[in-house]
Amino acid sequence: SLEHNSNFIRTIIKGDLESGKHNKVITRFPPEPNGYLHIGHAKSIIINFGLADDFNGRTNLRFDDTNPLKEDQEYVDAIQEDVKWLGYEWDDLRYASDYFEEMYQRAVLLINKGKAYVDDLNQEQIREYRGTLTEPGKESPYRNRSAEENLSLFERMKNGEFQNGDKVLRAKIDMTSPNLNMRDPVIYRISHATHHNTGDQWCIYPMYAFAHPLEDAIEDVTHSLCTTEFEDQRPLYNWVVQECEMESQPQQIEFGRLNLTNTVMSKRKLKLLVDEGITDGWDDPRMPTISGLRRKGFTPEAIREFVKETGVSKGSGAVDEAMLEHYVREDLKLKSPRTMGVLRPLKVVITNYPEGESEMLEAEINPENPEMGMRQVPFSREIYIEQDDFMEDPPKKYFRLFPGNEVRLKHAYFIKCHDVIKDDEGNVVEIHCTYDPETKSGTGFTGRKVKGTIHWVDANSAIPAEFRLYEPLVLDEVMKAAEEEGEDKMFLDYINPNSIEIIKGYIEPNMENVQPQDKFQFFRHGYFNVDPKHTAPGNIVFNRIVSLKSSFKL
Ligand code: ATP
Ligand code: MG
Ligand code: MG
């Protein structure tokens, strides 16, 4: 519910119910099935479903599938999965293509009323004739064809007698209107293409500006909520509803698009990333798609809270990606088990620990949520720590392990380094330490203090695992610098080469049976999700969702 975010759309709806203009609210979420949904769509979903829910109304999921060349069943399926995963249930599932016959009849009605005509000008000529903001448009020489001739030509268009681009149907409105959208917009075009729903039944397809208001009216949508780039189309939207003599009169209301820093968001660009093989599909964890965020490990709760916090205003500045990360940390903090994983292992031999022996140590599963209970962590003579938790020659203020220094092993003992083993090239390959049995975690030892606590896993029982660390695919500063240089190269030339790092490490043996999409907080490393695509028996793959620290402040 958007209850806590009173916003201007809610005020309009409330007024319409109070005045009796409507007695129920119907909204729709109308994606075109030409790609996967992204985080921007989540805003539209939350507004449309959330507002209707608040007023006990209804929301349709409607596929705005009027452009057969770009649409595909794969997208239809993925969109449904993503809407459900975000936590929303549609009342009716609709396809704009189911209304093609009715739309055709409404176009015939316009022709009969002298409000539409078949034009033979080509696309380029139509653009030229349209004029500009400072220059009125010119009428097409075909504008004054008789209704009879138009009806016959439109029917022949439908029957497939012309090639793509030979003719279009245009609304006859006003070539001198200050609003360019009203200068006789094209409402039907010829496209000999197979449609994912209607097959080869049609070779003419309605344009968005004509189809959308009709779809809304057919479904008795009361409030048609869309993004601000459609503001200039509102007069045309109303014209279509009026002149097509629709019984229902939906009201279009615009809100600001949601944009994020350090990402690309348009479906066209996202599709390029997929088609060029730059990402591992639409659900690559670096994608701002709902499926990508899901695979990376974001939760529906985090996405919903984030979107609600960004609000419903008309503005559309880019929101800091750090804010989205803030919400996933908040959501996972109490829910996800804590564990230890070593991403870049360095072997430590504890020389005074009896050979061949081991013990089980107790550790809280989540100290911030004691109800989650305890876990068992094995400990023995050989363990792994992180390579960068040891330095042979440390700078001042380095409180981790170095020769002669003592640190705490989380949930275990103090250890002190006394020897460094190197290979022929001088690389540290192993370090030798002693441990102090008196310092066992949980015994209340207070004899002396150490400044560093590091994590570890037992070398004998640890499970190998793969960790995938991510950075943004595109960086705003790089894109901006490219633009300033006047570069008009594709954004594909500016992909961050470090956007993914794959490393092999170890995890606690009690994680043997983790399942795809399980989420954990790895001590000091952040939150991770078990990747559902690459995880296989004997090969657990973790995607880092976020690191632990954030510079973001609400
Ligand atoms: P894109 O430009 O990314 O391809 P689109 O607007 O063409 O997106 P549609 O499938 O037509 O995508 O979108 C369905 C609904 O989602 C529309 O009502 C649209 O206004 C809304 N929507 C799309 N992108 C955003 C966004 N970034 N923020 C808020 N709403 C959005
Ligand atoms: Mg669209
Ligand atoms: Mg689009």
From TrEMBL:
GO terms for biological process: glutaminyl-tRNA aminoacylation; glutamyl-tRNA aminoacylation. It comes from the Bacteria. A motif ('HIGH' region) lies at residues 31-41. GO terms for cellular component: cytosol. ATP binds at residues 32-34, 38-44, 227, 257-258, 265-267. Residues 24-326 form the Glutamyl/glutaminyl-tRNA synthetase class Ib catalytic domain. The keyword Nucleotide-binding applies. The keyword ATP-binding applies. Keywords: Aminoacyl-tRNA synthetase, ATP-binding, Cytoplasm, Ligase, Nucleotide-binding, Protein biosynthesis. Signal peptide: none annotated. It is found in: Cytoplasm. Residues 336-436 form the Glutamyl/glutaminyl-tRNA synthetase class Ib anti-codon binding domain. GO terms for molecular function: ATP binding; glutamine-tRNA ligase activity. It catalyses: tRNA(Gln) + L-glutamine + ATP = L-glutaminyl-tRNA(Gln) + AMP + diphosphate. L-glutamine binds at residues 64, 208. Residues 453-531 form the tRNA synthetases class I (E and Q) anti-codon binding domain. Its EC number is 6.1.1.18. It holds the Pfam family tRNA-synt_1c_C2. Its main location: cytoplasm. InterPro entries: aa-tRNA-synth_I_CS, Gln-tRNA-synth, Gln/Glu-tRNA_Ligase, Gln_tRNA_ligase_bac, Glu/Gln-tRNA-synth, Glu/Gln-tRNA-synth_Ib_cat-dom, Glu/Gln-tRNA-synth_Ib_codon-bd, Glu_tRNA_lig_a-bdl. A motif ('KMSKS' region) lies at residues 264-268. NCBIfam families: glnS, PRK14703.1. Monomer. Belongs to the class-I aminoacyl-tRNA synthetase family. This is Glutamine--tRNA ligase. It comes from Salinimicrobium profundisediminis. The lineage of its organism: Bacteria, Pseudomonadati, Bacteroidota, Flavobacteriia, Flavobacteriales.
